[in-house]
Amino acid sequence: MKTTGYLILGAGPSGLTYGRRLMDKGITDFIILEKEESAGGLCRSQEVDGKPLDIGGGHFLDVRRPKVCDFVFRFLPQDQWNIFDRDSRIRVDGCEVSHPLEASIWQFPEKIQDRYLNSIKKAGCNTGAPMPTHFKDWIRWKLGDEIADNYMIPYNSKMFADSLDELGTYWLEKLPNVSFEETLQSVKEHRSLGTQPGHARFYYPKDYGYGEPFLRMADSMQHNIVYNAPVKELSLKDRTVTTMSGEKYQAQKIITTIPWDSMMVTDASSEVKEAITKLKHSSVEIRYVNEDPGSKAHWIYVPSLEVPYHRILCRCNFCLGSRGYWVETVKSRAEAYKASKWIKNFAYMNDYAYPLNTIDKREAIALILKEAASFNVIGLGRWGEHEHYNSDVVIEKAMELADNE
Questions:
Q1: Most buried pick, 34, 212, 240, 373, via CB within 10 A?
Q2: pLDDT per position as a tens digit, 95-111
Q3: Residues 102 and 187 in one domain
Q4: Is 221 part of any domain?
């Protein structure tokens, strides 16, 4: 059995950042276990059609966390990034309008504008109705029937497939209500009002995919990373990990950034074992299309149930000098590609893509994290905390956690 001070499970952005910050403090007694043959997790990139393609989906570096940006720029300097003002759109009602839809109704023809305005006016959040506890009901309550029926329900039905009816609303409580008055003012003034969506401005590498800084981060501590080492078992009480090949590791502290249900937690309480079974996630396929996306947008949301994918990433509009685009499709809908002309192009399935905010998830993950922490096993990042965090958020959380060691 190999022993170490810190054992980090997963060499994605959160695991790499935690390890690198330990090293910055002079702590070198740590090992990172990574199941793949290269680092980066969901932020890995691969050359496709002569240019990088991000096989884990669309990832960008938000400008709003300067400490995170400065940390990432240590490995890929700032002058090797382009900066963009976000252009994300929705294809709906025969139009392509800006996201979010409720702030972009003014971009529709007048007849469609009237439909949406009347619908928002009648939405529950504007009439004083109590907020529902199920996500699908919340959509109508917050946005009205027109946005629900034409965009949000079909889009999320594609995004979450069979799990849509299981999602709660606790993760939406901090969002502001859609004010009819503000929406009406937006239409009259022909401009978007309200809070800017995430990644309103973002960085993307000039000559690489988004995975490049994480490869360089990994190279800076290459002697601390063990590749091709998927985790099979975790013992909380002994703080030991067994890989699929039978290698055993023991640590004073374990930081896990991998999904709890991807391994056996052998000595957890029966309550925690049951809680782990309640954690749900989606699997998403990334498929490259060597065609002009027909849009200047960076990405496009596609609610139409007639096409399998839910989002288009227009690679040629942010990875400058490249061609084509890629589409993101939840696993259960990807079967439709078997009869598609795109079947011959590059495709990659991410078995763990997005954690799902099911109604009982909040209580389940809290129980898991509390018991694990009592044995000095800490969950970190998108999968360790089972939260839909973007890469800049998990980097920031990993920095803070390591800096407090």
A1: 34
A2: 999 999 989 999 999 99
A3: yes
A4: yes
